[in-house]
Design goal:
With 203 residues, the protein is mostly beta strands. The chain has one helix and 17 strands. The strands form five sheets. Strands 1, 4, 5, 15, 16 and 17 form a six-stranded antiparallel β-sheet that branches. Strands 6-14-10-11 form a four-stranded antiparallel β-sheet, with no helix packed on it.
Length: 203
């Protein structure tokens, strides 16, 4: 798995499709009653992006995106994608202390659903609060994508019993390309387009 970050380029076109996907086994009896078994507790995300303009001149936009695809070998290698509109949380509850537990998973809430964050952006600001009080960064460590337990906060001292733990942070989606081929088209000299490239999150 790679910690490379998908490049942010100016030629990104509208619209951008974002699809949450679950996997469920459904069995129907002769009476019509169903038994359903959810295989994934959290969704797999699909992103469909298109680029109307990729310049192959000194701006190197074509080379940047095509080179990134080539370096990943299509579907083979995972990487990190930052959704331009959904990449940060503020005052996000991640747990409550019990005077014994020191390890807490980062979460991101969306409406009434919360899912674990496994790729926090460790290069951006990350604040942790105990009972609303900002904690010094020396009092905890946060693991990133590519570690054995990604997106985990480990405190040096267990938070007190009943103390609410909240966090401000930004995050990536760990993804891979959905196909081993990408169709780049040159419509004018040194001007290219990529009508669609699909990313799928890795669980």
């Amino acid at each position: 798995m790679s910690t490379a970050v998908f490049p942010a380029l100016p030629g990104l076109a509208w619209s951008v499709d974002k699809q949450p996907e679950f996997s469920t086994i459904v069995r129907a009896a002769a009476s019509g009653q169903e038994t359903r078994v959810a295989l994934w507790p959290n969704p797999r995300w699909r992103f469909k992006l298109g680029y109307d303009l990729l310049r192959a001149d000194a701006n190197q936009e074509l080379q940047t995106l095509m080179g990134f695809f080539l370096a990943r070998q299509g579907q083979f290698d995972s990487f990190l994608y930052q959704d331009p509109d959904d990449h940060a949380v503020t005052a996000q509850p991640i747990g409550a202390g019990d005077s014994a537990t020191t390890v807490f998973q980062l979460y991101r809430a969306f409406g009434g659903f919360a899912e674990p964050v496994r790729a926090p952006n460790l290069g951006a600001t990350l604040n942790l609060y105990l009972g609303g009080v900002l904690q010094a960064s020396s009092g905890y460590a946060v693991s990133g994508w590519g570690t054995a337990t990604p997106g985990v906060v480990t405190f040096t001292t267990a938070p007190g019993s009943g103390v609410l733990i909240t966090a401000d942070f930004s995050f990536y989606y760990p993804v891979r390309f959905a196909a081993d081929i990408a169709e780049f088209s040159e419509f004018m000299h040194q001007l290219w387009e990529l009508k669609q490239i699909e990313l799928v999150s890795v669980l």
